[in-house]
Specification:
Elements (H helix, E strand, L loop, with lengths): L7 H31 L8 H22 L3 H28 L6 H23 L9
């Protein structure tokens, strides 16, 4: 008998979120490769950026496969990815307010970043829920 690690909603949500993350990483890597190939940015292109994006895409896709196969390591990598986004969004919010720069609309800035902050928090909550066990009597 295979023990369930994920709830159905948590599994679907994580796979969908990570799919979008992998798509974003891959698209960003392709854009950087095109910039480097066309020499648009001069000598400012670093192989490190492209390498990081390629590795991040690979890890994200491997995590999606791990979630599909009910692996525990995939759950922890997913929580780490969600946490990475939470810290990044929090850092953006703090840096904008501390810099004192005028954002186009502070209300829209707050709403967009609040939504962006809620999505990974929801993912962590869904991942930490225990799946229901089928008890037949």
């Amino acid at each position: 008998m295979v023990t369930k690690i994920y709830t159905k909603v948590g599994k679907f949500y994580s796979m969908a979120y990570l799919g979008l993350v992998a798509l974003g990483f891959a698209a960003n890597a392709i854009i950087w490769i095109m910039i480097a190939r066309n020499n648009t940015a001069g000598n400012e292109i670093s192989f490190t950026t492209i390498f990081f994006l390629a590795i991040a895409t690979f890890v994200t896709v491997a995590t999606i496969v791990g979630i599909f196969k009910e692996k525990v390591w995939a759950k922890w990598i997913t929580i780490a990815i969600f946490s990475w986004y939470i810290f990044g969004i929090t850092q953006t919010i703090i840096s904008v307010y501390l810099s004192g720069s005028s954002v186009i609309s502070r209300t829209s800035f707050k709403v967009i970043h609040l939504i962006a902050l809620i999505l990974p928090v929801l993912g962590i909550v869904l991942l930490l829920q225990k799946p229901k066990t089928n008890v037949s009597s």
